[in-house]
Amino acid sequence: MLKKLPLHWKIIIGLVLGIIWALASSWLGWGSFTESWIAPWGRIFIDLLKLIAVPLVLFSIIGGIVSLGHPRDLGRLGGKTLLLYLTTTIISVTVGLVLVNVLAPGKALDKEVRLENRMAYELWLQERGMRPKDGRWFSQDSTYQEVLNKVVEKSGFEETEEVRVRLETAQKANEDGPLVFLEEMVPGNLFFSLSDNRNMLQIIFFGIFFGVALLFIPGEKAAPLKKLIDSIAAVFLKMVEVIMAAAPFFVFALMAGMVNQMAGGNPGHVLELFKGLTWYSLVVVLGLVIMAFVIYPAFMAFFVKGMSFRDFLRGISPAQMLAFTTSSSAATLPVTLECVEENLKVDKRISSFVLPIGATVNMDGTSLYQAVAVVFLRRCIWLI
């Protein structure tokens, strides 16, 4: 019976069972067992996805550029792609900020829980060199020195050496020129960039640069390398498939570990947090629904001819469900490529270039939920 279930339903079942296990283990006093023997598998799952993300994106981009056949086609496609990505990202952030300020999900938390969150936040600040004066704090993340001066003068805050160094670093970043983002995009050491998932933009830059250069190489010299790149990309796609075959168990372990850590031996605390997080989640889901069923259909109606939005949803639904349950663009990328090429009949030359970049730099759902999360957490901590 379970073997016939689609993967996304198995993952949803694993997610629900993980939450139930964590609450039960907290109630029965098995929290240490869950943390020692179950939670590590969830962290292993995340590490496996991170392990594959960088090479998968790198070789997919190179393969996509090579398949275009001419740098001129890359320029047109790249410009349209980045413009569309920027537009949808701005719209998603705007939708998230409007919803979270209108619906105010953070106020659903019990006042006692919000006070505990405030205390935990102050302890976190104290560990990082902050020192209170008159029961108040200032943020070490302030960018402008004049803001710091005003805060110190008006509120009587007291700096420590660590905070002063951090503020000087932030001030230096503020004084950087307008092209500093381009400097940071160009890797000085490829192997260093490959070693850290946070340098994904540098990986994308190298992949595009390498792919464009490969287009100018004579065909007889470039052919073996093109075949090698295609073979390597296929291997990493297969590695993702192997990992995702065990995803239901990994998701169970991941949720069990996370909820067990939140519970801390008190299931009632988790239920109270879930009460507040439910409203937060509903706001995020509402924003995602607006993006998926209002904004995207509007774009399709304007740009795409000959395909209804219903047909689009039917063709892309396997990738959507997998993305929803795993929250991993890297894990979903192989399924997305298959859905777009097989179900929607998009040219492989386009999908193999656009989708890996989109999985890295165009995350409308992430942008929306982060906008909601910032305001939500502020209300959870500052009792407003």
Task: Please tell me about this protein's structure.
With 384 residues, the chain is mostly helical. The chain has a single domain, classed as Sodium:dicarboxylate symporter (Proton glutamate symport protein, Orthogonal Bundle), CATH 1.10.3860.10. Helix content is 81%, strand content 0%. The protein has 16 helices and no strands. It has helices at 7-28, 31-68, 71-103, 111-127, 145-155, 161-175, 180-185, 190-194, 200-215, 219-245, 247-263, 267-303, 309-326, 329-343, 348-361, 364-382. α2 (31-68) crosses α11 (247-263). The radius of gyration is 24 Å and the shape is globular. The termini are far apart. Residues 133-159 have low confidence and may be disordered.
Number of strands: 0
The overall number of domains is: 1
Major beta-sheet overview: none
Fourth CATH level, the homologous superfamily: Sodium:dicarboxylate symporter
Helix amount: over 70%
How would you describe the shape? globular
User: Per DSSP, what share of the residues sits in E-state strands of 2 or more residues?
Assistant: under 5%
How many helical stretches?
16
Average pLDDT number: 78
Radius of gyration: 24 Å
Distance between the termini: 49 Å
Question: Secondary-structure element order, as H and E?
Answer: HHHHHHHHHHHHHHHH
Secondary structural class? mainly alpha
CATH topology, which one? Answer: Proton glutamate symport protein
